[in-house]
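> forwarded from #structure-qc
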């Protein structure tokens, strides 16, 4: 892709060329993500991911000739639920994800809060400084 760290989606052989519109629509909670660099987001509070093959222009517009990826985050509900996750790795990697949801007023007012923090020290030490 001629750019370090870029990622492109290829669906059924239809791919994106550099600095052009993507032929695969990526939609998060109904909002189209027009830049493929937005695919590098961290997904941690997801209800479902739908991969739709083939032309999807009727539902997702002109940028869906190869297909569409529909990402739905978890919605608040009456049921109280939550999660917490901690990861550690090389280069002093530390990642904490947590979420909590439920009803403030039964069947009327719901809440959902989710957060993530990540710290990474790198894999190469700079001995010059």
């Amino acid at each position: 892709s001629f750019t370090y760290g870029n990622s492109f989606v290829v669906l059924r052989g239809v791919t994106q060329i550099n600095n052009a519109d993507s032929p695969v629509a990526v939609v998060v909670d109904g909002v189209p993500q027009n830049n493929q660099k937005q695919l590098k987001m961290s997904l941690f509070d997801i209800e479902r991911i739908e991969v739709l093959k083939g032309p999807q222009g009727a539902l997702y517009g002109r940028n869906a000739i190869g297909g569409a990826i529909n990402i739905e985050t978890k919605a608040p509900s009456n049921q109280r639920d939550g999660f917490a996750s901690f990861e550690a790795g090389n280069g002093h990697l530390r990642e904490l994800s947590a979420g909590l949801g439920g009803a403030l007023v039964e069947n009327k007012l719901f809440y959902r809060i989710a957060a993530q923090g990540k710290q990474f020290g790198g894999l190469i030490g700079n001995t010059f400084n």
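QC bot note: DSSP finds one helix and seven strands in the chain. The mean pLDDT is 85.
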